[in-house]
Amino acid sequence: MRENPLIVEDLMLLMFDDESGAIAGAGTLYYTLGGAVLVELAQAGRVRVDAHDRTLNGLRVHSVAGEPLSDPVLRAAGEKTAERVRGVQTLLIELGTGLRLRETVLDRLVERGMLRRESKRRWGVFRTTATRAADTRHKEALVKRVRAVLIDGEEPDDRTAALIALLSASGTLPSLHRVIPWSGAVHTRAKRLEQASWSAAAVNTAVLRTVAAAAAGAGTAAAVTS
Fold first, then answer.
1. In order of start, what are the domains of the chain with their CATH numbers?
2. Consecutive sets of 10 residues in the chain, 226 residues long: mean pLDDT of each?
3. Positive or negative CA dihedral for 159, 165, 169, 170?
4. 66: Cβ–Cβ under 8 A, 6 or more apart, which residues?
5. What is this structure's pTM?
6. How many Cβ atoms sit within 10 Å of the Cβ of residue 115?
């Protein structure tokens, strides 16, 4: 794979716990990964939004015509976006689930050698596959750039700003506390970048809606069984 990693690949690496193999924010991951792909389409000039064009599902996202994108993930996302105009939160779900972004991105990171898969038997009977960190040099460089912005106050480039905004919006930034110590200042800087990104803000709203719905469902179940 010769192309540089996509923003969604870098985001997955940052959300991936190298020790346990868990992915932070797994329950709403499709929103976050969809948001990362949408950010990249926006940076490529292939989608646009109008601050006055809004529905209950957020800003309406319009496709912008152009040459077919070379990366298959971005090309598929561009085609999905071009099907019709819809609210950003609806589009995030369609991108995250319809393109199977979790599986696709993990496969790409394995192909790049940044992650690896281990297959073993449990109790000598059941075969399981786990994903683990492999070559961590690229991730270490990502963390260094994010840390320089959030801890040292450096101005981010567009790519790093997008990564921080999406980490903040998804609520997964504290999972990096071992390498980027969590503090009020870190929270404030990250939120500032999040609020400047229409796509990241949409992820945040979608995540909060999902959490609220889950809490309401748990409350209803408790009331029925009590």
1. 7-213 (1.10.3630.10)
2. 88 96 94 94 92 88 94 97 94 95 97 92 74 97 98 96 94 95 96 90 79 67 55
3. positive
4. 45, 46
5. 0.90
6. 24
